[in-house]
């Protein structure tokens, strides 16, 4: 498989080069030259396959000969060695729970897959790779966990001081080894600005091979197709599902749309947004306008100018009519988010996190208009990561799952950084 830049000003590359570079040299996102098609046998056999085998079949055409089949099989098996249960919440709505990975975030899958690919590639080159990433919370923990101990890879995570939840901060700052957490005295936008500047700094680039680990990287973006396949494996209705995806940078839903383009039977997608509604507005009106991000309760979706929107347009050949036939946008306010958490908990006993609540509410509204359909929403994080939102609504504490209880006794280690580029540059040039 070859990948081209959406800016059209850079040569095509293979999966290896696309993964190592992250972004094309012309600043564009990489996109595959063709969309592989699932074979009729694969679709007929979906329910009998193991998660690891299914992951391998889905991703192999995208990787091509950049990784030998036996190595790729092992990478797939390690990436998805936890559950992705489809849990009925109401008669019409089920949750696909994506939070059973080591950091309780759906980003674990992409981070685990990418880290193992990069680990394999770095065995064949002498220069170590530095993964530089800014996080508003969930990305950093998933990346830190995924890359921990990978030889030849150093990870530098920037996070805004005091603006991630206590559990998220422990996930970022307690691992040590090849992971360094830079605690920036500023907000998430400062972190992102510093990272972007580093990627353009010739002095830093001469000193280190830098790559990014957010969903612009194909190795983090493409494995998210697995979720949709696992949803279909567990789907028991006769009709094809409507899938609602809580969206920020639109990497997750864009991966779902890729799986659909490969032949996965999904009837409709709902792009569920919080007040950051640029893409939802585009779906409704045909006009796209990026805006500064606004802060909401579902903070992992606070993105004003989603990077993967360009990939969605490319997939549909820039045709608004084609995108909007398959994908509806929905905008859910903070008030509706907390009301949904409370109501669903009271009526069904199911506890949503703020991001899942946005998707649940958007799906509910869609199904009101389509009463014959059944739907799935992606529950992208465990509610325990957002106690300050969830606990007042339900009037009770959310028990910390066993998987992360050990974190609570560990000690934070971070390097404080002023929100000025000179400070990051000095760190990276050391
Ligand atoms: C990152 C994140 C999202 C948004 O996913 P995108 O791929 O950026 O659209 C939604 N929910 C949670 C919990 C996240 O961490």
TrEMBL record:
The keyword Lyase applies. The keyword Amino-acid biosynthesis applies. GO terms for molecular function: pyridoxal phosphate binding; threonine synthase activity. The modification N6-(pyridoxal phosphate)lysine is found at residue 107. It comes from the Bacteria. It holds the Pfam family Thr_synth_N. Transmembrane segments: none annotated. Residues 97-365 form the Tryptophan synthase beta chain-like PALP domain. It is an enzyme of class 4 (lyase). Keywords: Amino-acid biosynthesis, Lyase, Pyridoxal phosphate, Threonine biosynthesis. Signal peptide: none annotated. It catalyses: O-phospho-L-homoserine + H2O = L-threonine + phosphate. GO terms for biological process: threonine biosynthetic process. Its cofactor is pyridoxal 5'-phosphate. Pathway: Amino-acid biosynthesis; L-threonine biosynthesis; L-threonine from L-aspartate: step 5/5. Belongs to the threonine synthase family. This is Threonine synthase. It comes from Hymenobacter telluris.
């Amino acid at each position: 498989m070859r990948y081209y830049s959406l800016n059209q000003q850079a040569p095509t590359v293979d999966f290896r080069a696309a993964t190592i570079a992250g972004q094309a040299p012309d600043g564009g996102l990489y996109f595959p030259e063709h969309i592989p098609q699932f074979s009729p046998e694969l679709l007929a056999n979906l329910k009998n396959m193991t998660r690891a085998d299914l992951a391998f079949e889905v991703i192999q055409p995208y990787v091509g000969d950049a990784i030998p089949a036996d190595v790729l099989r092992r990478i797939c098996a390690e990436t998805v060695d936890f559950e992705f249960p489809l849990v009925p919440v109401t008669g019409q709505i089920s949750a696909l729970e994506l939070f059973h990975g080591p950091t309780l975030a759906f980003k674990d899958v992409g981070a685990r897959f990418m880290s193992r690919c990069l680990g394999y590639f770095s065995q064949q080159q002498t220069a170590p790779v530095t993964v530089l990433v800014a996080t508003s919370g969930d990305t950093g923990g998933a990346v830190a966990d995924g890359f921990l101990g990978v030889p030849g890879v150093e990870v530098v995570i920037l996070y805004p001081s005091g603006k991630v939840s206590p559990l998220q901060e422990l996930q970022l700052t307690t691992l040590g080894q090849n992971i360094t957490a830079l605690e920036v005295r500023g907000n998430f936008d400062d972190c992102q600005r510093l990272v972007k500047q580093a990627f353009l700094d010739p002095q830093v680039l001469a000193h280190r091979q830098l790559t990014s680990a957010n969903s612009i990287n194909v190795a983090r973006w493409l494995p998210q197709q697995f979720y949709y396949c696992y949803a279909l494996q567990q789907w028991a209705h006769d009709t094809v599902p409507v899938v609602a995806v809580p969206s920020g940078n639109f990497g997750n839903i864009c991966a779902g749309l890729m799986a659909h383009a490969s032949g996965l039977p999904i009837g409709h997608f709902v792009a569920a947004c919080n007040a950051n509604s640029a893409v939802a507005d585009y779906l409704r009106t045909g006009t796209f306008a990026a805006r500064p991000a606004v802060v909401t309760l579902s903070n992992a979706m606070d993105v004003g100018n989603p990077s993967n929107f360009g990939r969605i347009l490319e997939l549909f050949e820039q045709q608004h009519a084609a995108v909007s036939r398959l994908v509806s946008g929905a905008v859910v306010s903070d008030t509706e988010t907390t009301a949904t958490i409370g109501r669903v908990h009271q009526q069904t006993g199911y506890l949503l996190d703020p991001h899942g609540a946005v998707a649940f509410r958007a799906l509910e509204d869609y199904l009101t208009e389509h009463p014959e359909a059944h739907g799935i929403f992606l529950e992208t994080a465990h509610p325990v990561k957002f106690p300050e939102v969830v606990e007042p609504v339900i009037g009770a504490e959310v028990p910390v799952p066993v998987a992360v209880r050990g974190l609570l006794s560990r000690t934070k280690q971070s390097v404080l950084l002023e929100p000025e580029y000179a400070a990051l540059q000095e760190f990276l040039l050391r």
